[in-house]
């Protein structure tokens, strides 16, 4: 079972790499503005999770520089996700707000919709 999951994971990564979306190119001022908005965001994810791949492809398509945190292999990141986010499920988008509060958003489709709305994509 572990081997089948490993093979499927590699296949997902290969297909993703072969059909990688084209990243949008912005002028440097526009990219800097969007980078400032995404600097407070990070995404908890697994490298071979298909739902995480779906979000990562959107990040690439829209040239969004959002830090990726490995909630599978990094025990500290995994514990943080469960303790603060409430669930061990990925993908999860974390946003550290200026007032010190932290917003956790699960569900790949909701994350994509949220990014499009917040960043006017
Ligand atoms: N409906 C969710 C499904 C996410 C999901 O099932 N993620 C799996 C990984 S592919 C997960 O976090 N499983 C929990 C675990 O492995 O502990 C979405 O679209 O984001």
UniProtKB/TrEMBL annotation:
InterPro entries cross-referenced by the UniProt entry: GLR_AS, Glutaredoxin, Thioredoxin-like_sf
Any one Pfam family here would be Glutaredoxin
Q: Locate the Glutaredoxin domain: which residues?
A: 43-95
Q: What is this protein called?
A: Glutaredoxin
Q: Does the keyword Signal apply?
A: yes
Q: Which organism is it from?
A: SAR92 clade bacterium
In the record, which residues are listed under signal peptide?
Answer: 1-25
Q: Which domain of life is it from?
A: Bacteria
The answer to keyword Signal applying to this record is yes
Keywords, comma-separated and alphabetical: Signal
